[in-house]
Amino acid sequence: MPLTFEQMLMFLYMLVAVMLIIVLYHAIFVIVDVRKITRRAEQVTQEIQSVVLKPLSVVDQAMDFVTDFLHQKKKAAKKHVDHE
Fold it and tell me: C-alpha angle 74/80/84, rounded to 5°?
């Protein structure tokens, strides 16, 4: 029994439909994996940010303390010079 052109075309359409279903099925898994990777990357970014910002915050507070101390010392020295 020879295959007709219409039968071959119908077979190709079914084959394309099956392949499209398989591609969509895999695309769902890829999208889910990308979302997991993105979420994990965001967590890692937040952890790195907290690790970097903690020492910077301590240094900023120390600098504020030192500058305030120096300003107070300068004011005290200026008052001492003015009284003499």
Answer: 145
